[in-house]
C-alpha cells in the first residue's frame, strides 16, 4: 500500500459531556441523544418522508408561517444562509446588507461570489440600524434584496422592529431575508405577519438539536422571484425548488430524489421540536428565555460586570455578551472555566474577539440554576486570573 | 398565535431497524449508533479538532493519497460533488463528463449552473467508456476538467482502468475528478498513483457511517488551479481553501472558524473508520466485497436471474444490479421484501427505474449469510408476485 493505516484510530473515541453555554451548539437533551442512536433509514423510505412532513409542520409553527416552501437544508446554518442568497441573487442584482457583526459580513461575502451589486449598511459592532437610515439607503440604491440579522450572535444584539423593515421592503418591492439563527424560539418572531420573505435558523441553539440540518422558509414573493430567474441557480444542493420537490412542498408535483438526507439528523430535530412543544411551545419559551436571561444579567451587573449591549431592549435573550474587564486575557478565563468545571464560556468572534465573553443559555440550558452557576464561574475565573496577575507582579 | 402547535408531534418518534441492502445508506454498526448518541461538542473545541485531524489521516489512507488538502464537506455526497466542481470551474471552462448513469447527468447539471462549457460523452446506460473514444474527445474539446464516475450506483457498473485516464489527463493538462461514492473501500482505488486530482466519496455506503459528512481530497494541481482562479468560488460553504483552513490542511496558516460542524457526524465517521481499520483495512475489505458479491451473483444466476452488467469485470462489488424479469412490477417486489422481512431491495433510478433491482452488500452488510438471505428473499418475492398474477388471470 502507498499509504499505510494510521495509528490515530487505535485510541478509542472518548467524548466527555460539557456544559455547552457558549454561543452554540447548546447541549442535547437526553432524548435527542437517544434519537440520534436510532437505526438509519433511507432518504425515500416512507418513515423518513413522514418525519420530514412532521418537521415541515413543526418548522412552520416555529417560524409562524404558512409558507408551503418550508424545509431544511442539509448543512449547517451557513448552508441555509447560502441557500437564501443563491436562490434570490442574479448577476448585478442590488442587495442591501445591514452589517454590525459577522453575519452581515458573511452575507456580503456570499453575495459577492454570486456577482451581486452589494451595498453594505455598516453599523458599529453591536449598534442597531434605524429605519430612517435604512429608508435612505433604499432610496439611494433601490435594492431588490434586503438582508438583516434578527439576533447577531457575535455581539448578542437583537434588532427590534423587524416588522417595520418588512413594510419598507414591500414599499420598495424588495425581498426581505432575515437571519434568525439565534432568535428562533427565544423571542417573538412572526415570519408572515412581519412580511419576511426568507427566514432561516440553526438547530443547535434554542432547539438543542444537532447542527447540520437547517430550517428555512420562502414566501410566495420569494418563490415568484426564483421561478422568474433568467439564469440557473448556481447550486444544485441549495436549489430551493428542487429541495421543495424533495420535501413535498408542492402538493401537485411528484416527490423527487434530490440527495441522501441524514435520517439521524432528522430524528434529532424531530425530537427537539417535540420537546419544545411539550414544554409549552413558543410563548412558554419566549417567557423563559426572557426571565432567565434578565436574572443572569442582573447577577453579572451586581458583580460589577458590564454588558456589551447597553440598552436592555436590544439584548438578545439567547446569547449574552459581556465586556471583558481591562487587561484580562479571554483565553485564560475560558480555559479556567473549561478545565475546572467543563463549562463553556464563549470568546468574541470577528471584531469582538478578545473584547467580549459570549454566554448562551438556550433551550434546556435556559434555567435559573445554570444562569447562576455560569455567572458565578465567570466571576470566579476573572478574580482568579486577576489574582494570578497580582501575584506574578509581586 | 397565527399558526398553532401542530399535532404531529404528539406521536412519538419510532424507528424500526431494517436490513439496509439497497444502494445505500447501509446499516450502522452498533458502535456507530453508540457514537452518534455521545454528547455534542463545539466546532472549535480541542477534542473536535483532534477528531478532525484523525479523520484526515483516515481519509488519506482510504483514498491512498498524501494530499494535504483532504477534508470532509458538511453535507451529503452531492455536496462533495458540488464542492469539486464549484472550486474548479470558471465561466466557459470546458469540462468533459462521461455519462452512463445519473451521476454524469448530475455533474453536467451542476457544471451548467456554473456556466461551464459542458461536453457530455454519453454512453448507453451501464456501458463503459473506452480510452480511445475519450482520447478523441480530448483532442476535439481540449477540456480543462474531466469528470468520471468510478462506480455508477444507478447501474452497478465499475469503470476499469481509471489509471489510464489519469495519464490522459496529464497529457492534455486537464484536471481529473473521480466520483468514488460507492467504490471507496470495496475495490482498489489509488488516488495518487492513478493521478486523480479530486476524489470524493459518501460515508453511508461501504463505511456504514451516517450520511451528511463527505470526504474529499484535492491534489496539488487542483489546489494550484483554485488559487489561480480569476473569479471567486461561487460558494462560501464549498470553498475548498476556506474548508482547508478550517480542517488545518495548511500547517503554516492559522485554523479558522468556517461553519458549525456537526460533532455527532464526526463521531459516527470516526468510529466507522476505526472499525474499518480494525477489520483489516483496505485489502481485507476489497477481498471480502469481491468474494461475497461473486457468491451473491452466482446464487442469483443459478436461480435464473440475469445481472444487468454482463461482463463480470465491470460489476461493482458494492452495488449489484439485476434485470427485472418481464412483466414484473418492481414496486411489488420491493414492498414484498420490506413488508415481510424488513429487507430493502432497491429500485433502479433515472433511466434504470423499473428495469433493475439494486442490491448493496456494503461494509457490515457484506457477508455470506446476508448475501444468501437477500438473494432468497428476492427470488421468493419474484415467485410470489408471478404466482399472484397467474392466480389473478385464472
UniProtKB/TrEMBL annotation, chains A, B:
Q: What highest taxon heads this organism's lineage?
A: Eukaryota
Which residues are noted in the entry as substrate-binding? 358
Modified residue annotations for N6-(pyridoxal phosphate)lysine = 205
A GO BP entry: glycine biosynthetic process, by transamination of glyoxylate
Query: PROSITE patterns, alphabetically?
Result: AA_TRANSFER_CLASS_5
For this UniProt entry, the molecular function terms from Gene Ontology, in alphabetical order, are: alanine-glyoxylate transaminase activity; L-serine-pyruvate transaminase activity
Q: Which residue intervals define the domain Aminotransferase class V in the entry?
A: 42-369
- Ranges annotated as spanning the membrane: none
**Family stated for the protein in its record:** Belongs to the class-V pyridoxal-phosphate-dependent aminotransferase family.
Name by which UniProt lists this protein: Alanine--glyoxylate aminotransferase
| Record organism | Polypedilum vanderplanki (Sleeping chironomid midge)
Amino acid at each position: 500500500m502507498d499509504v499505510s493505516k494510521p495509528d490515530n484510530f487505535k485510541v478509542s473515541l472518548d467524548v466527555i459531556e460539557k456544559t455547552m453555554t457558549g454561543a452554540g451548539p447548546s447541549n442535547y437533551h437526553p432524548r435527542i441523544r437517544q434519537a440520534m442512536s436510532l437505526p438509519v433509514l433511507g432518504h425515500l423510505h416512507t418513515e423518513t418522508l413522514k418525519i420530514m412532513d412532521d418537521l415541515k409542520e413543526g418548522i412552520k409553527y416555529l417560524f409562524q408561517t404558512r409558507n408551503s416552501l418550508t424545509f431544511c437544508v442539509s448543512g449547517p446554518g451557513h448552508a441555509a444562509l447560502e441557500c437564501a442568497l443563491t436562490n434570490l441573487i442574479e448577476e448585478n442584482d442590488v442587495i442591501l446588507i445591514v452589517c454590525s457583526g459577522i453575519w452581515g459580513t458573511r452575507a456580503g461575502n456570499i453575495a459577492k461570489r454570486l456577482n451581486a451589486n452589494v451595498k453594505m449598511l455598516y453599523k458599529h459592532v453591536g449598534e442597531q440600524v434605524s429605519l430612517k437610515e435604512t429608508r435612505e439607503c433604499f432610496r439611494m440604491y433601490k435594492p431588490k434584496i434586503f438582508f438583516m440579522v434578527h439576533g447577531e450572535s457575535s455581539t448578542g444584539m437583537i434588532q427590534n422592529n423587524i416588522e417595520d423593515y418588512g413594510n419598507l421592503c414591500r414599499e420598495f418591492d424588495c425581498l426581505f431575508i432575515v437571519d434568525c439563527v439565534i432568535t428562533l424560539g427565544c423571542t417573538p418572531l412572526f415570519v408572515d405577519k412581519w412580511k419576511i420573505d426568507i427566514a432561516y435558523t440553526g438547530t443547535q441553539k434554542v432547539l438543542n438539536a444537532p447542527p447540520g440540518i437547517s430550517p428555512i422558509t420562502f414566501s410566495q414573493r420569494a418563490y415568484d422571484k426564483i421561478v422568474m430567474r433568467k439564469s440557473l441557480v448556481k447550486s444544485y444542493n441549495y436549489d430551493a425548488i428542487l429541495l421543495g420537490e424533495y420535501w413535498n412542498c408542492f402538493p401537485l408535483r411528484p416527490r423527487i430524489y434530490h440527495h441522501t438526507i441524514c435520517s439521524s439528523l432528522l430524528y434529532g430535530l424531530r425530537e427537539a421540536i417535540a420537546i419544545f412543544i411539550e414544554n409549552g411551545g413558543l410563548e412558554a419559551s419566549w417567557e423563559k428565555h426572557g426571565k432567565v436571561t434578565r436574572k443572569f444579567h442582573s447577577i453579572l451587573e451586581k458583580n460589577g460586570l458590564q454588558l456589551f449591549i447597553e440598552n436592555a431592549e436590544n439584548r438578545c435573550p439567547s446569547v449574552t455578551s459581556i465586556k471583558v474587564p481591562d487587561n484580562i486575557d479571554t483565553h485564560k478565563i475560558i480555559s479556567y472555566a473549561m478545565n475546572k468545571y467543563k463549562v463553556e464560556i464563549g470568546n468574541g468572534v470577528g471584531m469582538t474577539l478578545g473584547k467580549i465573553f459570549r454566554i448562551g443559555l438556550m433551550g434546556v440550558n435556559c434555567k435559573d440554576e445554570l444562569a447562576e452557576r455560569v455567572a458565578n464561574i465567570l466571576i470566579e475565573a476573572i478574580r482568579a486570573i486577576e489574582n494570578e496577575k497580582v501575584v506574578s507582579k509581586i
